[in-house]
Write a structure and sequence with these properties.
Blueprint (H helix, E strand, L loop, with lengths): L1 H30 L1 H77 L8 E12 L4 E5 L12 E3 L4 E8 L4 E5 L6 E6 L5 E6 L5 E7 L10 E4 L11 E7 L4 E5 L8 E5 L21 H5 L2 H10 L8
Antiparallel strand pairs: 1-2, 1-12, 2-5, 3-4, 3-12, 4-5, 6-7, 6-9, 7-8, 8-11, 9-10, 10-11
């Protein structure tokens, strides 16, 4: 009981001393600001080491708690990275197997991939994007080897193809033109499809083949190489609306891109063989006996004399 009273008295004295000290400091600051500032600085110099000693256990405890949290966080991240490594290794194995199979098929079928060939590098002079026709002009023509039906590619992706060529300039059909059609592959799913323009700022994805897996916003579209004009693997655009119809934003815009590559058609389609003349067809034996096809026809048209009276 007496001890509690002594502790209460000591606490009251300490509290009173603190309050009195604060009042004295406040009074000194009012009377002499410079002296008050020096007193505060001296007090800070005295309190700072004491405060550091008092905070040391709490700082150590906080660091320990943070270290434990970092440890468990690192364990979780390590497990996630390990799972990702396992998944990537599995994908790598599949890719290696596919590559081996492709090499085997190439050797068996003597498959030859056409090489992309640069025709000219030119600057886009102007672009006309109307409601009906969307074309552009480039400063390269027949003198530079440009011909109609050649793909035009920018740094970001496909721009279109040449449709008219002059001596020193050419007109391009842009992807957004209603007459534009580009065979593509969905990079994520491997589906084959067709990208066409409708005169607006976005493209339309149609005619999907194979497994109709739902597309997602952000799916990338690459040229498939089908048709022989556009080389495979060139970025065409990415899906911005997976509804119906599926809307695609072009990977490259003709405005402000500067220079483009004009390449030769990736795999020119072979010319159709001329119709073989009739004389190359096998002639029946009966026709050979009567002087060919004409003789056979004359013989059939002649009136029969069997049984004439």
């Amino acid at each position: 009981m007496r001890r509690d009273q002594n502790l209460a008295i000591i606490g009251a004295v300490v509290t009173g001393a603190v309050i009195a000290t604060g009042l004295v400091l406040l009074l000194i600051a009012r009377v002499s600001p410079q002296f008050g500032a020096s007193v505060r600085a001296a007090a800070v110099d005295v309190v700072t080491p004491l405060w550091s000693v008092v905070r040391a256990p709490f700082d150590g405890l906080g660091k320990g708690v943070n270290g434990i949290g970092d440890y468990f966080g690192a364990v979780g991240r390590a497990r996630a990275l390990e799972a990702e490594v396992i998944d990537l290794r599995a994908r790598l194995q599949v890719a290696e197997a596919d590559q081996i199979a492709f090499r085997q098929l190439s050797r068996l079928g003597r498959l030859e991939n056409p090489q992309r060939r640069l025709v000219a590098t030119a600057r886009i002079v102007s672009a006309t994007q109307g409601a009906v026709v969307q074309t552009a002009l480039v400063a390269a023509g027949r003198n530079q080897g440009v011909r109609p039906g050649q793909p035009v590619i920018a740094a970001d992706g496909l721009i279109g193809r040449t449709i008219e060529t002059g001596l020193g300039s050419s007109r391009l059909l842009l992807l957004t033109d209603p007459q534009s059609r580009v065979p593509v592959l969905v990079q994520r799913t491997g589906q084959a499809a067709l990208v066409s323009g409708d005169g607006g700022p976005l493209l339309v994805l149609t005619d999907r083949l194979g497994l109709q897996e739902p597309l997602q916003r952000g799916d990338r579209l690459l040229t498939s190489g089908e048709g022989g004009i556009f080389p495979p693997g060139v970025p065409v655009g990415f899906v911005v609306d997976a509804g119906e119809p599926i809307r695609v934003r072009a990977a490259a815009s003709p405005r402000g891109i500067g220079f483009v590559r004009i390449e030769a058609a990736y795999a020119a389609m072979p010319a159709t063989a001329a119709t073989l003349p009739m004389t190359d067809a096998p002639v029946p034996v009966e026709a050979q006996r009567v002087g060919g096809i004409k003789g056979l026809v004359r013989g059939l048209d002649a009136p029969s004399t069997d049984g004439a009276t």
